Amino acid sequence: MNGPVLEVRDLNVWFDGPGGRDVHAVRGVSFDVRPGDRLALVGESGCGKTTTVLGVLGLLGATASVSGSVRVDGQEVLTGGDAAMAPYRWGDLSIVFQGALNALNPVRTVGSQIAEVLPRDGRVSRRAALRRAGELLERVGMAARNVAFYPHELSGGMRQRACIAMALAGEPRVLFADEPTTALDVVVQAQILELLDRLADELGLAIVLISHDLGLVGQLCDRAMVMYAGRAVEEGPTEGLYTAPRHPYTRLLYEATPVLGADRPLRSIGGSPPALDVPLAGCAFRGRCPDAEDRCSLAEPALTPVAPAHRAACHLTGRTP
Amino acid sequence: MSHLLDVEDLVLHHRVPRTIADRVARRPARVVRAVDGVSLHVDRGELVALVGESGSGKSSTAQSILGLVTPSHGTVRIDGSAIEGLGARAMRPWRRRMQMVLQDPYGSLDPRCTVASIVEEPLLIHRLGGSAEQRRAKAVDALERAGLRPAETFLPRRPRELSGGQRQRVAIAAGLVLGPSLLIADEPASMLDVSVRAGVLGLLRELCDSGETGILLITHDLATVAHYADRLAVMYLGRIVEEGPTRTVLEAPAHPYTRALMSSVLHPDPRERGGRVVLGGDVPDPGARPDGCAFHPRCPLADDGCHTTDPALGPVDQRPAGHSAACLRPLPAGHTTTAPAGRTTTPDLAGRAETPDPVLWPDRRNHMPGGTAGTLPPADPGAVPDPLPGGTVMP
Fold first, then answer.
1. Is residue B60 situated within a structural domain?
2. pLDDT at residue B286 tops 80
3. CB under 8 Å to B241, separation ≥6 — which residues?
4. Which residues of A touch B266 (CB under 8 A)?
5. Which residue is closest to A269 within chain B, CA to CA?
6. Do B266 and A198 touch (CB under 8 A)?
7. Which of A255, A280, B76, B253 would bridge B258 by S-S if both were Cys, CB 3.0 to 4.6 A apart?
8. B67: in domain
9. Is residue B225 included in any domain, yes or no?
């Protein structure tokens, strides 16, 4: 069968902090993306979801140091520096950035911004590039004549579609989508969900969704990795995570998510994720965990299998039952 | 017994200035009808949700009630006494009784102010504080009621030292410090992490349950409404199209728009895929309101009558009193639609169409026809209509 397009192993990201207090933002994250996969990275703000993806794509600035291994089609791209990653970025791997309302340049037309990222093999006329941009817009459900429009002339949902069209320009095999529906209202959210769903099916595109919206995750993705304080604390099929979450953090996230027609009170999770500029002793979630015991402050639990294709990092529920 | 807040026939029309081209072509000025005859009421201890898409006029309604914009006409009564005149000046004496919580706690708090000065400022503005000690005591009380305990530890802090949830609680405390009887909360949780949303909304619910405060909650998220609101009013293009007790409306929505909004709520259970009714396009330009029922261009059930007759909000057959809708072809009652995305079949139509049309209430890959031409008026510059999603596949 097909091997993974993307293999990420033991990814670590540090940011330079003031006074040498470096922030360890991503701590040993590993995942694979195979053709057609639909993976979600889930967690609160500040848990390292976006940093993980930017680290994989080599898009973090000079203040970040990244270690680990990132392979595209078996080819190591992380240790080779930017030159190794550059051929894949916006080619096989592309990204829809967070905040579609601000991601586009306001003083240039949508078409010229899409044309800018088209692959430059050979000489392409401006007219041909705009025609291609129009085709990409049609693929995301917009009329081709939108190429002549400026971002402010489009609604939020259309701007998000334009960003998705731009990400498709290099005919990617893996599309990272960072909070693609945040700041859009429910109806437009559902439209964007349908679009991503359709693109994944039609183009055989693998999707890596970054979101804290478990509704979106459940409807779009088959697998999810729940991140907390820069680590994966649980990963598995979305159905398994919903029906039988094994990490208390995953369970509490689902309990905080409103569901239409469910007669249960919503619960918020008290506290906030820990600061990552000091070394953590024990389980990072223990301060907010309703089930924490003494041993949770002694050692950080490792990801261990709890069910087929389902792993959790918790002293209490990570044991094989 | 009069309602805490009673809004009658509120109208907010914006006149769009004519451009030179309009003058040359002798086109009349366009009028954008942002709020187009809204009546609603909120009682003490009641949480009423105003629901709709972006552009439906729900925030304009809130701003008109508070006099932040001057409505064209309409009556706003607080405890039975009508506010004389409309607009900011007339509102001033009433403001301390009606406070607002804004959507963005990152933008709405002055980053240079301490929590203490943010929460005490309304007292200074309204000259209610008394001495500095009395003001401080009131601020502490408001912070504690907003769930920031112990309040003393928060007083000297600045917004950047607080999490998003804590910031929103500070904003709520600044609203509570005047002891208002009505709070208007405009998407108070949508900028916050899912993990803290329940806390902020639960706080609003507690304030209602204490009996003195009524809350008008503005949101697009029906799942949230289902958990917290006593009643809801669904807005579309400046008008209320359906209203009633939350449970009654969500169990048997009468208006297809309400049903579509419910269907847009995404269920976290992957087994609950399918059965979504995805509305195409956007809310039409309120400057070019469609004839007949304003929803008919996006409605899968619209027939000829809907193109010509504009339905009024009124009681619906087979629905309890208090549940009303503005629809000529209301959905039949008698089936449960509480799980929004959970039905792969189309029981919605079983009662009204002999053979449910698969194009109208489709499986998840199909869409309501609203995304096709006609959804957006051509006058709008952003109005290039989405063709039916499901369109072209690149070779």
1. no
2. no
3. B234, B235, B255, B257, B258, B295, B313, B325, B326, B327
4. 189-190, 193, 213, 215-216, 218-219
5. B195
6. no
7. B253
8. no
9. no
Structural domain of B330: 251-365
At B287 the three-state DSSP class reads coil
Q: ipTM, 2 decimals?
A: 0.85
**Chain A environment of B391 (Cβ under 8 Å):** 138-139, 141
* Cβ-contact A178, A167 below 8 angstroms: no
Q: Which chain B residues have a beta carbon less than 8 Å from that of A267?
A: 198
Give residue for tokens 């009380």.
B141
| Residue A257 to residue B194, Cβ atoms within 8 A | yes
Buried b (16+ CB within 10 A) or exposed e, B192-210: bbbbbbbbbbbbbbebbee
pLDDT of residue B241: 96
Domain count, chain B: 1
**What's the first-to-final CA gap in chain A, in angstroms?**
32
Q: Is B278 within 8 Å of A191 when comparing Cβ atoms?
A: yes
Cβ within 8 Å, pair B276-A261: no
Strands of the sheet with A93-96, listed across from one edge: A93-96, A174-178, A206-211, A38-42, A223-228, A231-237, A310-312, A304-307
Q: Is residue B219 part of a domain?
A: no
* pLDDT for B163: 85
Question: Would you tell me how many other CB atoms lie within 10 Å of the CB of residue A69?
Answer: 14
Does position B81 have pLDDT exceeding 70, yes or no?
yes
pTM for the model:
0.83
* pLDDT for A262 beyond 60: yes
